[in-house]
Amino acid sequence: MSGSSAGSGAAPCRLVHYFVICGIDTETGLEPDELAALYQWLEADRQGTDPDAAATGENLEQSPLKRTFKSKVLARYPENVEWNPFDQDAVNMLCMPKGLSFRTQAEPRETQFHSFIITKEDGSRTYGFVHTFYEEVTSPQICSAMQTLYQMHNAENTSSNPPSTSSSSSSSSSSMDSLASSLDEADSPTTSSSSSSRRPGGYDSSRDTLYVSKALCLITPMPFMHASRRFLSQMHRAVTDSSAPPLPLESYVHNILYEVPLPAPGRSLKFHGVYEPIVCQRPGPGELPLADFPLAETFSLLGVENLVQVFTCTLLEMQILLYSQDYQRLMTVAEGITTLLFPFQWQHVYVPILPASLLHFLDAPVPYLMGLQSKDGTDRSKLELPQEANLCFVDIDNHYIELPEDFPHFPNESEFVQELSEVLLSFGISAISGAPPRTRTPGSAPGSAPSTPGRERRTAVLRQLEDDGRNGNLAGEELAVLELLQGNATLERLQALTKRTGVTVARVDALRARIKGQSIEGQGGRTAAEEEELRNAKLNVQLREVFASRFITMFADYEAFVIQSAPDLESWLTNREQMHNFDKASFLSDQPEPYLPFLSHFIETQMFATFIDNKIMSQWEEKEPLLRVFDTRIDKARLYNVRAPSLRSSSYQRCSVLKEAAQAIEQRLMKIDHTAIHPHLLDMKIGQGKYEQGFFPKLQADVLNAGPSNNKWSHRTATTQRRKDRHRQQSEHLTLDNDLKEKYMQEARSLQKNLRQPKLSDLSPAVIAQTNWKFVEGLLKECRMKTKRMLVAKMGREAVELGHGEANITGLEENTLIASLCDLLERIWSHGLQVKQGKSALWSHLLHYQAREEKLEQQQAESPVSNVPERRKSESSIGMPFLRVSLIQDMRHIQSMSEIKTDVGRARAWIRLSLEKKLLSQHLKQLLCRQALTKKLYKRYAFLRCEEEKEQFLFHLLSLNAVDYFCFTSVFTTIMIPYRVVIIPIKKLSNTMTTSNPWVCVSGELGDSGIMQIPKNVLEMTFDSAFRPHTHISALFKCQNLGKLTTVQLGHDNAGLLAKWLVDCVMVRNEITGHTYRFPCGRWLGKGVDDGSLERVLIGELALPNAEEDSGRGCRTPPLQRSPSQTRRISITSMSARGSKPTSAQIQEAIGEAVNNIIKHFHKPEKERGSLTVLLCGENSLVAALEQFFHHGFKSARLFQKTVFVWDFVEKAVAYMESADQMGDLQETAEPLGMTCQSLCHYVNAINSTRRNIGKDGKFQLLVCLGARDRLLPQWLPLLVECPVILRMYEDTAQLRDRTTVNALIGVVETLHDFPITLEASLVKGIDL
What we know:
- The chain is α+β, with helices and mostly antiparallel strands.
């Protein structure tokens, strides 16, 4: 059996897949790093300078020891593993992300450890663990090449300018691991600690020894970080120790590659390194998946609060950029955050260590989680990032974060932080570290973080205390001494100084020794390293359990909302995009109010969609492992805790399984389940396996590429694997062809994942172009999905406007969808930018456009926008002057809003305003019409320069015009808005003029304007299409945003000869959003005409923007209620004359419908309710229905020779009751009835004695509203029915005289008693009860 197949047969069950050595190839010598050159080229291209000039020639200004040289994979064992093909370029790039590093004997040469991850295109991951050390260069060619480079460098420097000190630090990563070196750095006067500043001579081959970096690497299928780290450090020690190791190095490498299996789930495994045994363990099937990176370090680096904020950004799939000098820190934080996501998984670009050559990936207009190595001494402000509108920037070394604007907090955040802090404290780790997070504001440049030398030293001392195996359970006094030590900067310095000079501080050292002794005693003979590992493992699992329990609480009932609609897997996969998988509306309506801002965003993410997809697919195939664990946890939680009482409760539930989780880990590590075969001598020739001390040898490939041929274990696993393969093939035949299924799956899950992962190995321009093309396609697809989702949600709401479930959370849902559209537009506008200007790419483009247009405006007398067709006309184009549609005008509105402080905020406000005005697509089309500007701002491959995709994108946005949004008005509630009011009289010229002084008061959902007198000289005349003249009164006023308008009070003072005024309607327009409201009136205002009213309360409706009212009706939001139409209100006489009286059944139905609408109003969440006034007084309202009831059978007006109103009947009834009361007739009646009589008389007299001239119909309306508010209507009705006046004024057939009907009416109206009815100030003004 050949070596590679022996190796591959057991590969899936092997702990380690490859052992790799990277370093300098002595045969090819010193080669400049091509990838670094490519990076310089890309960087120059991004900044708009000549890229070719940047990439040609070597950088002679930089010291040769600081330049990047090409590293190579020197050896790998075995050659290849079938399951995990070796990606040489990627491994080389990630083992040595900065290429080879050179040092002389005068510089520090600490060993470094870092990890990396390779994510394949299908999302599967492979882990790499790298131990880097320095090895002496023995090749004379390389030494002389370096000498030559130094001479050229010196010649260049002396010819151009005196030698300048290099500003970059020598160490390839932060050297915080050693207390002394960190104190050295802190104490050194400059940030520079490079050799050229210490030794001006640089490198001289005659007197200096040259060292070069070399890396040993293990590639593993699972993140066994601790085990790999210990194995690699023992391998390196074997080479540097004065005494040779017990066996040749090949024995240890062969052993870990072929004879150490993966631990079985729920088991632990012991295998042997060179000097000590190494233990690793794997969680059982019911436990959280393996995570070996120390979370304690992640929490210490960021601080608990900061970490929770970054975690929230990750859940909401924002762009997350980690920034640190140390590769291992980048990896630790990235892996830490992603392991906490359980049961969800990050679905987008994931590159914890971004090699320099891949920096163009920061342009990616998709969510990503990337780690960027900071150059020594570079400031955050110097970091030019292509897009920051939706970026969470995490500066790990300086312990601070920058958050995107407007992002929701994690539910119960403060209690959550408290619980995490307590877990950390129980392990002796201070939870308070990390600077407070910064949200971007325009004033504060995100400069250097608040990191002081004192703070750095304190962190270092704390780290050293942890490394001492401190167990957290110290006696109070001793703990106090150590706390004092770590809190006092002077003591820390003294301690470090004494240590460096060789003096010991007996008290502290004795204390240290005692604590160490205690801990070893308590460990039952375990080493400090083992104890530390156990402690880390226990802390990891407890912290992760706290996070997991939050999701178990939040999503305990998620299964109830999963929609299982497909009969089989194939049909589900085929129709995946069209299917609605999760009932988001019902789910959100079931959640506590404080959770909603976060959850409404979270359930829109790709990771949640994938989670639900996995749930649905689990009915046809095996459950995905994370989902299986999560579902088991939920079932368990249900057993212990009946969910019903805690439904909709936002009280915090602490994690209850911390103890047992830690115990499971401890038992596994204490009681080893399996011990691997010991390393043994291999079949090697005598003399092989010898090496020189300090140099890692070239290993014998023939023995390392061949797996063990007689190893029972490998045979067994190979047989098992073959059995599994056969089983898999059979099941594939039974279900779906696997390739087809994979294709469907990829499509189903690739909503935003057209590019899951950058391919690290191939970086040709063609690949980069293809990657950008994938981005363009992905953005277009995402735009299609988002606009479709917005339309479906909005139209769905309109379909259920009558009340079932969906409508109650749409305000929140709508806001989430619009925020996500704003984010998408920002990402589109930041794709392929030539040079970044400001945080918001969209606003930056708009400003460039504005500057050009204003310049053109100055050059031309007439505005270029006038040829844009006028869109906004008032519904009845009489009266309202045209409102010019202009992109620039909308920008100026936003720029004048002092409430918005940042460019990102302005861009979002502009998008909301354009969407509300139904001009978003038109405005963006206009913006992109200036092709010269687009070419100047964007590279050729940018989304905005792909003509066909751009057209489709604008078309998708155009579809949003089918529905009405109030996303600007409802969000910016405190801004000042100009409103134009136009009062239109009925077209009889005799009635259009009035000598009296009119006034209006406009009310909306957010408040009212107060009474505004309209000056007399604003009478305007316009001509209609037939050139007939029309006069109207028009006035402009400014007040705080009133929201959607509900009522207008219109009145006058009855002064002068022409005081009577017949008003057709009042039009009010919001001059910023262009929304026009029509308030129908159709009544007289004046004494002695109609019902004698001098003021009326009118109910409005939103007018359509165009005259073709009916053509648009099919696709718009249902109209709001409005004032009762003219026909209903004119008078009884005309009503009877028209013969359009409603039947008894219609009247009863109208009353039921009106009451029903009020009840539904109170069942909606408060923010969603809209105007109650409309339901009480508008068309089809309670007042309208009761008026019809009282008009039924009312005796014709001809008998009385003048118009009679219902109010006349009410007044007569009250007069009768009052006279009866005086004569003592009512004394015999029951007490409550007498009280009711008094209340009716009191209310009617109060309405009559008000100083407002609201007319008889207005008074009846007011009586009904007050009766409904004070729950008196059902008590008043019997009094009016019993009153003898009814016999004179109503016919026998009248409904008011039918006891059964009246009792039914009382029953219906009584249902309103459960609700707190409040009346708008415009209705009850001046009523004194």
